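Obj.: predict assembly geometry.
Materials: sequence records (below).
Method: joint structure prediction, all chains together.
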Amino acid sequence: MRETEAKLVGELKGRGYRLTPQRELLLSVLEGSRKHLNAETLLERVHKVYPRANKSVVYRNLELLADLGLVSCVDFGHGRVEYEVHRHPHHHHLTCRHCGRMLEVRSGAFAQLQQQLHQDYGFNADMDHLAIFGLCQACSEKADPRHEHHPHALQGMGF
Amino acid sequence: MRETEAKLVGELKGRGYRLTPQRELLLSVLEGSRKHLNAETLLERVHKVYPRANKSVVYRNLELLADLGLVSCVDFGHGRVEYEVHRHPHHHHLTCRHCGRMLEVRSGAFAQLQQQLHQDYGFNADMDHLAIFGLCQACSEKADPRHEHHPHALQGMGF
DNA sequence: CCTCCTATTGCAACTGGTTGCATTTGTATC
DNA sequence: GATACAAATGCAACCAGTTGCAATAGGAGG
Ligand SMILES: [Mn+2]
Ligand SMILES: [Mn+2]
Ligand SMILES: [Zn+2]
Ligand SMILES: [Zn+2]
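Observations (raw structure tokens):
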């Protein structure tokens, strides 16, 4: 039994959750990918093994797996949310709103902020797997971005 | 002429953007509210003055106003994105994923992170008006949150 | 291995938000 | 103020994701 699957069974057990083939399969599909995957792609891959699976069960189980801390999700503003297995130590993404380039950031840089929010407000911030938007080095240097408007560079809620 | 409206005209001028009644009205509706408003509410209020306005023009102009830096938007995971006029200095929101309580945070606490991302990656992070999820003080103290699952505490992409 | 209970599923209807396109309307120029 | 041209609008179709509900199926207990 794979490590994450043992974790899955462990997390489900004793809370009234059941181990269903859809759940196991969904997690194993995510495990088998090194990239983020969206719900549609996930369903396609689940379908190869379990053709009767339905999109609503994909969404519902992604939410459950995320609540259990086994899966991370993120919205890069590309029109669909993306998912991946939760890795340790966790990471965040810096996304250039001009050229789309993405940098991965280890969570260390965020510890300071997290600590400060806890100190100042008693707030226990999650901050797993965030998407931070901005301009990458190359695009910052190129031109003064204040005088350009890129209406369709990035759609969705990410602006 | 109101201050933000002057700003609107200024931002539009010379970039080929036009000043339309819908744009002006949308901004003035946002100006007239002290709370975040969602697109549906905005359209309702716009309709009172300009009944033929359409939802797509609301969304398109909200995107434009956000690009121009006049409007902030945020997704609290309540099923609809919320908007407000951009205020200085800007702020962020701490949202408790257990009880829903919200704290407003001045942007100061984020300057350090912003600086570090710039130092380490040359990345120029936006970080206007973020929604940070986590547990508020009261909810953190109450019980060990690792052993509870709240499936419907917060829907959407915010988990 | 049967029974029961309820969590989970599949499905279809729905919601918030986006998009393509034909029509309208700002605005620059005369 | 009329003309011309592209930007913006209204509309209807569309898309990703959610929800209510009746049917299915884990799994605990016997
Ligand atoms: Mn990632
Ligand atoms: Mn706000
Ligand atoms: Zn870039
Ligand atoms: Zn709370």
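Conclusions so far: The longest strand of chain A covers residues 91-96.
To do: check interface contacts against the pulldown list.
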